[in-house]
Amino acid sequence: MRVGNKKNGFTLVEAMIVVLIFSFIVAAISGVLLAGNQSLKANYASFIVQQQGRGSLLKIARELRKASGVSLVSQGADSITYQAKDALGASYEAAIYLNEESGKIMKSVGGVDTATIAGEISGLAFYTQGNTVKIEVTSQKTVLGRTHTFTLAGRARVRNL
C-alpha cells in the first residue's frame, strides 16, 4: 500500500546538474595542475641554464689557472689561446672557444677539438689585465616559447706566468 507520492532516486535533470558541476570542478583542477606543470618546466629550464653557465665558468677558470701563458686576439674575443703542461711536464698549446653553430664551448689542443666544456651557450668573452683573465659566459635555453638567459662573469688568475 502506498501512502503519499514519494520519489526514490534522482531525476535526470538533477543528475545532469551534478555532472555539470563536477565537470567544472575537474576543469578548474586540471587547469591549475597544467599551469603548475608549465611553471615547473620553466623554472627547471632556468635552473639548467644557470648550472650550464656556472659549470662552464668553473671549468674554464680551472684550465686557465694551470696555464703558463695566455694569448688573446682582442679584448672581448670569444676565444683564448694558452700554453700549459701535461702530467709529464711536456708543454702544449690549447684554445678555448665558442662554437656558435652548436652553441658549445670547446677545448682544442693542437688545433684538434678534444673536449666539450659546456653546451647551450650563446655568448663567451675573455678580457685580460696583467695575469688575470676575466671570463663572461652567457647561457640560453628556450622552453615553452620563453627564452631563459643567464650571464655569469668570473676571473681566473694565471698562476704560472
Please describe what this structure looks like:
The chain has one helix at residues 12-65, and strands at 69-71, 79-85, 91-99, 104-109, 112-118, 121-129, 132-143, 146-157. By secondary structure, the chain is an alpha+beta fold. The protein has a 5-stranded antiparallel β-sheet with strand order 1-2-3-4-5. Strands 6-7-8 form a 3-stranded antiparallel β-sheet, covered by helices on one side.
How are the SSEs placed, and which strands pair?
Blueprint lengths: L11 H54 L3 E3 L7 E7 L5 E9 L4 E6 L2 E7 L2 E9 L2 E12 L2 E12 L4
Antiparallel strand pairs: 1-2, 2-3, 3-4, 4-5, 6-7, 7-8
Low-confidence stretches: none
Content-based structural category: alpha+beta
Q: DSSP helix count? A: 1
How are the strands of the biggest sheet laid out side by side?
1-2-3-4-5
- List how many beta strands DSSP finds: 8
Backbone shape:
rod-shaped
Mean pLDDT level: 85
What is the N-to-C order of secondary-structure elements (H for helix, E for strand)?
Answer: HEEEEEEEE
Précis, in short:
This protein has one helix at 12-65, and strands at 69-71, 79-85, 91-99, 104-109, 112-118, 121-129, 132-143, 146-157. Strands 1-2-3-4-5 form a five-stranded antiparallel sheet. A three-stranded antiparallel sheet has the order 6-7-8, covered by helices on one side. 34% of the residues lie in helices and 40% in strands.
Keywords:
161 residues; alpha+beta; five-stranded antiparallel β-sheet; three-stranded antiparallel β-sheet; 1 helix; rod-shaped
